Amino acid sequence: MGRKRKHENSDLPKGLYAKNKKNNTYFEFKNPFYGIKGLLKSNIKTLSLGADKKIAIQRHQGLIKACENYSAASDADLNVKSDNTENNEHITFAKNAGFTKPNYITVLPDAVTYIGALVEKMISDIEKKSTLSKKTQDQYKYSLNKIRKKWGPLQIEYLNTANIQTHLEEYIDKGNLNTAKKFKSVYKQLLEFGKRNGLIEIKAGVIEATDTPRFETKRSRLSSVTFKEVHDEIYKENIPNALTLELGVITASRPQDLTLVKKHKNDDWDFQAKEFIESTGEQREYLKQNNLIPSPYIDEKNRCLVILCQKTVNIIKISFDQYSPTLNKTLGELIDQIKIICTVPTSEFLIHQIKNHGPLKLGASIKPITLSRMFTKHIKRLNKSWLKGSHPTLYEVRSLAMRDAQEVECSAKNIPNTTVSENNSTITEAVNLKQNISKAIDLGGHCRKSKMAKDIYMQPRDLFHQQLNNVLKQSSYS
Questions:
Q1: Which helix (H) or strand (E) segment is 165 a member of?
Q2: What is the structure's pLDDT at 325?
Q3: Residue closest to 458 by CA, chosen among 442, 434, 437, 473
Q4: Residue 19 and residue 48: Cα distance in Å, rounded?
Q5: From the CB of residue 378, how many other CB atoms can be counted at a distance below 10 Å?
Q6: Is it true that domain 88-202 has CATH number 2.40.160.60?
Q7: pLDDT category of residue 406 using cuts at 50, 70 and 90
Q8: Around Cβ 413, how many Cβ atoms within 10 Å?
Q9: How far is 138 from 440, CA to CA, in rounded Å?
Q10: Contact 227, 400 (CB under 8 A)
């Protein structure tokens, strides 16, 4: 990374530099035509654009335009810095990167000639999108910058299935299957962006023919037995954190929602909910960072817990009758127990600190990061042999909760159909028209069309292996 420009030169365009010689300032520009035989001053590395700043910028813009026109009009045969018949610099870079010059061109340049230019335009487009959160933008930009670095000065024609597969294989060979899958998705979006904006022309399916092995999750599932072991240890250390875990194993809610449950509905809850649902990108991030989000609350009148999920922006209502086989208690019974233990009158949170705990003061809410670290600390201390190679994390509590609910659902008879119309005009109507959840698949707050609940959270993965180990351990000879 180059050094930062001086303040007086901060407005200079990229590639234009101010030089001082004998107390006189003049401006230089790296010659874009250096090494191209047959062009004027092609043997000079830097071009002097004079001492007048305004005129230098105008000359710089003229050179940039001339360079773009030349690139668009020229063939791939530029004879750069060499007597070779092809672009030696590009071929050398391609060989070092493991790419081959395509015989059959599937992606053709239209308004851009180089892969790097296409990536830059997509990054610029992402930065203008207010619908994307800052975190999502940063993730896209990170991947795109990796792609730009990988392809360097290569032309659009090099973007074909074989060369993209070469890049993906770098991650597949290291076992980073999830990373390879993400890059495949970014490549697809990059080509779609170029085609949609008239920057490139695609003659055939490029990404569809690439192959990435299926990613297998290495994190083990959380069983009821393991949950109880971890819960009991956390209960000895911090009772409110243990109660938060219990609330999670009944409601299947995310930690960021669990820790903000309030005793009552705020007066401005409807307004905050409407603003949060309608917000996008940076605006939603601002609401989260400034605690302007609609917190979950206890509805005593209707005997339910109301949650507006921060991630999915879905409103769910969980009845006090929701039962957990792991805890052998209902949500209503747990709430009554929490009210007996968490009794700080000045706290608005259902579960709160009952004594000063480090930087957390009496009555403060539980911090998700603290809960996660405590859970990880105690599960590591169990010294179990995990089939998947990695211990369960706090988020596995959601999976356990949904599998518990599925068990209850399967044993129940004549479950009523609670499907209701989503046509409502106010937040109050949206909450009032919501039925209490009766199906396990709805418990996590996922959209009905989403396969996340069924295909991810409700799959047992290595639980049968854990159960078999427990049986063998109990029946083994001493």
A1: helix 161-173
A2: 93
A3: 442
A4: 10
A5: 17
A6: no
A7: confident
A8: 4
A9: 34
A10: yes
Could you tell me the pLDDT band of residue 344, with boundaries at 50, 70 and 90? Answer: very high
Question: In what helix (H) or strand (E) does residue 108 lie, and over which residues does it extend?
Answer: strand 107-109
d(CA 393, CA 371): 11
CB 139 within 8 A of CB 192: no
First to last CA, the chain: 63
User: How far apart (Å, rounded) are the C-alpha atoms in residues 146 and 132?
Assistant: 20
- Compute how many other C-beta atoms are within 10 angstroms of the C-beta atom of residue 215: 13
pTM of the model: 0.58
* Residues 6 or more apart whose Cβ sits within 8 Å of residue 164: 184, 187, 206, 207, 210
Fold of 224-475: hpI Integrase; Chain A (1.10.443)
Contact predicate 431/317, CB 8 Å: yes
Q: Give the pLDDT confidence score for residue 271 in this predicted structure.
A: 92
| pLDDT, tens digit (0-9, with 9 covering 90-100), for 316-338 | 999 999 999 999 999 999 999 99
Q: What is the spatial order of strands in the sheet that 297-299 belongs to?
A: 297-299, 304-308, 315-319
- Count the neighbouring beta carbons within 10 Å of the beta carbon of residue 171: 18
Lowest mean pLDDT among 19-23, 60-64, 216-220, 308-312: 216-220
In whole angstroms, give the CA distance from residue 109 to residue 192: 14
Domain ranges of the chain: 7-73, 88-202, 224-475
Contact 239, 355 (CB under 8 A): no
Per-residue pLDDT of 118-134, as tens digits, reads 999 999 888 887 667 77
Residue scoring higher pLDDT (422 or 456) = 456
CA distance 315 to 301: 18
The count of other CB atoms within 10 Å of the CB of residue 10 is 8
Q: If pLDDT is split at 50, 70 and 90, which confidence band does 47 have?
A: confident
Quick one: pLDDT at residue 422?
A: 44
Report yes or no: 175 and 139 within 8 Å, Cβ to Cβ: no
Query: 37-71 in b/e burial notation, b at 16+ Cβ within 10 A?
Result: eeeeeeeeeebebeeebeebbebbeebbeeeeeeb
**Same topology between domain 88-202 and domain 224-475:** no
User: How do residues 216-248 score in pLDDT, each as one tens digit?
Assistant: 666 788 888 899 999 999 999 999 999 999 999
